[in-house]
Amino acid sequence: MTVLSDRPVRLRFAPSPTGFFHVGSARTTLYNWCVARQMGGTFVLRIEDTDAERNKPEWTEGILSAMRWLGTEWDEGPYFQSERTALYAEAAARLHGAGKAYYCDCTREALEDRTGDPNQGYDGFCRTRGLTVGPGRALRFVTPDEGTTTVIDLIRGEPTFENALIEDFVIVRGNGAAMFLLANVVDDIDMRITHVIRGEEHLPNTPKALMLWDALDGGPEPVWAHVPVLVNERRQKLSKRRDKVALEMYREDGFLAESMRNYLMLLGWAPKEGPELQPFASLATQFRLEDVVPSPAFFDVVKLTAFNGDHIRLLPFDEFLDLCRPWINSDSVPWAKDRFDEDLFVALAPLVQERVSLLSEVPGYVDFLFTDEVAYDDTAWSKVMLKANVPALLGAVADAFGTCEWEPDALKEALEAAGVGVGVTKRQQVPVRVAVTGKQFGMPLYEPMALLGRDVVVGRIEAARACLA
After folding, report:
1. Is residue 95 within 8 Å of residue 216, measured between CB atoms?
2. Please, how many CA atoms are within 13 Å of residue 148, restricted to the half-sphere of its CB?
3. Which of 28, 164, 359, 361 has the smallest count of CB within 10 Å of its CB?
4. Is 310 exposed, middle or buried (0-12, 13-18, 19+ CB in 10 A)?
5. Contacts for 353-357 with beta carbons within 8 Å, 24 or more apart?
């Protein structure tokens, strides 16, 4: 890992509390956390909450909760930019006093009147007007008119920007509030940040940050690394208006922190040793910023879900049971609380663990165990139960189950024999599953039937048959 000096390594994660915690932010915090741990450095959390109109306390708490869930605890902070405004005001005054910034009262309409181009960047009109601070006057940074600025980036090489194409950008709004760039650079200097790992959408701002860093005598510049953007299946940048991007939503759906960490680490990077699915500790040790590819990374929910299922199957059984508790004890379960049978659930939980991809699926696999009447899935009923031979099959099975030995293997043999007797193959015996569970798919049928008991199972088969009469 690259270090530009012998200073102590310090990295920061600096989210804005303006919404749910984006999966792209989750990946960024993982990368920062890994580098900090590998290099014996400090991981700083800074909340960039200067946008008072959009910031909410619950968004801040969401950030903290999501980071704890991911296992990326910070070493310092959280620091809040809203509590550091005096630092930004002092930096702005220094820049203005040194002639590196000037006040401007130009409006967008005035700029368009001067240039005749609604898309024209700022033309530097107020550079020499000598305006002082006043209501509605923004403070602009003086950018060089010639030369280039090069960003040394561990992922993107050395992108170079023409200074003449960078307008004199605003660093303090007309209301006196510091802009993102100024606050960001001042904080990075003050917090002695040595590595900045962030999304590639910030790359165009980096030459401006470097100009500010130099103008404020910030010392050695940080190591830069701009990680690739995340895209959906249409190769469009993930959008909260179009895509499921909130980490909180995945957690609520029953994704494991371990599988989410594992998958996010692989968005733009791959381990050189071992398979993709491996303990996070191993991935964190192998991770290298230099090996992250710059091209967009596909956030594949299907693959993530498969990862989650794989991780669920790797869980020790007792841990799986503990993780199921919030779901089976939820107020939204489709059974009365006093009907839940702990011993019955524990007996069948290994079959559930082998099949679910999300913890939220657990209640749907076992709900038929704790209800008096079966709730038939509409699609399963219409696809499976309305065929001509179903009543005969259900009658034959009910008769066979009335006398056979009541254990899984015997139930399997009795069902298959009854089916053969009415001309139904093994693949056509799904109506029995629908009659007993209400669903076309689920866990193996014979073990649950053995535990439910003869009277319950035969009664459900007869009830389904009566619905078809």
Report:
1. yes
2. 8
3. 164
4. middle
5. 353/312, 353/313, 353/315, 353/317, 353/320, 354/313, 354/443, 355/442, 355/443, 356/309, 356/312, 357/305, 357/306, 357/308, 357/309, 357/312
Tell me which residues of the chain have a pLDDT lower than 50.
1-4
Residue partners of 272: CB distance under 8 A and separation at least 6 = 286, 291
Indicate the helix (H) or strand (E) that contains 140: strand 138-141
pLDDT of residue 95: 98
Q: Following DSSP, what letter does each residue of 36-89 receive, concatenated? A: HHHTT-EEEEEE----TTT--HHHHHHHHHHHHHHT---SEEEEEGGG-HHHHH
Which residue(s) pair with 231 in the sheet?
Answer: 237, 298
Q: Residues with catalytic annotation?
A: 240
Give the whole-angstrom CA distance, residue 355 versus residue 442: 8
Q: Are 457 and 404 in contact (CB under 8 A)?
A: no
**Residue whose entry in the numeric block shows the structure tokens 């220094």:** 94
Is there a contact between 349 and 317 (Cβ–Cβ < 8 Å)?
yes
End-to-end CA distance of the chain: 73
Largest CA distance in the chain: 101
Specify the pLDDT at position 114: 86
Task: Kindly write down the DSSP assignment for every residue of 160-227, as one continuous string.
Answer: EEEGGGS---EEE-TTSPBPHHHHHHHHHHHTT--EEEEEGGGGGGHHHHHHHHHHTT--SPPEEEEE
Distances (CA, A) of 59 to 17, 49, 53, 190: 5, 10, 13, 25
pLDDT digits (tens, 9 = 90+) for 257-286: 999 999 999 999 999 988 999 999 999 999
Q: Cis ω on the peptide bond leading into residue 78 (within 30° of 0)?
A: yes
Q: Three-state DSSP class for 365?
A: helix
Strands 138-141, 170-172: pairing kind: antiparallel
- Alpha-carbon span 414 to 398, nearest angstrom: 10
Give the C-alpha separation, 265 to 259, whole Å. 10
* Per-residue confidence (pLDDT) for residue 3, from 0 to 100: 45
Predicted local distance difference test score (pLDDT) of residue 399: 96
